[in-house]
Amino acid sequence: MSAPQSPVDWSETPGPHAVRPRRTGAWDVLRAVVCAFGLFSLGYWGYLAWPFPLPALFFIVGAPLFAAVVWFFFRSPRSPVETDIVGKTIVEVALVVAAGAAWVSIGHPVVGLVFIVVAAVSGVVQFRREAR
Predict the structure, then answer these.
(1) pLDDT value for 70
(2) How confident is the model at residue 16 (pLDDT cuts 50, 70, 90)?
(3) Residue ranges of region Disordered (predicted)?
(4) How many CB atoms are closer than 10 A to CB 76?
């Protein structure tokens, strides 16, 4: 007597760790640009707002690094700290306002305001996509 066979062909079934390709759309690109510009904004603020060499270098490197670490721990899709939607919103708003305020403090309020508006729109779209 032969053993029963499954109707599924297991050779074509992907394993449990198979990676599905993720589609990258225009909103994902805008989101990446907003994040990169936010980090650039904090570094540029450190360059212009502080005297060179010691305090400036600390803020040129430290401000974007601190923002990136906070974003990774509390806002990133792969963050090690489980955060609800309210916590993610608070972290993102704080980082966006910090980058916008950096532009205002160095004398470019229009750049700061435009950045905050674009970041807010991309943030709302991202949160709506995550809430699905």
Answers:
(1) 94
(2) low
(3) 1-21
(4) 15
**CA 95-28-72 angle, 5° bins:** 40
- The answer to whether 39 touches 64, Cβ cutoff 8 Å, is yes
* CA-wise closest residue to 73 among 65, 64, 81: 81
C-alpha–C-alpha distance, residues 57 and 105, integer Å: 18
Residue 115 predicted with pLDDT over 80: yes
Distance between CA atoms of 91 and 89, rounded to whole angstroms?
5
Residues 9 and 95: their CA atoms lie apart, in Å, by: 50
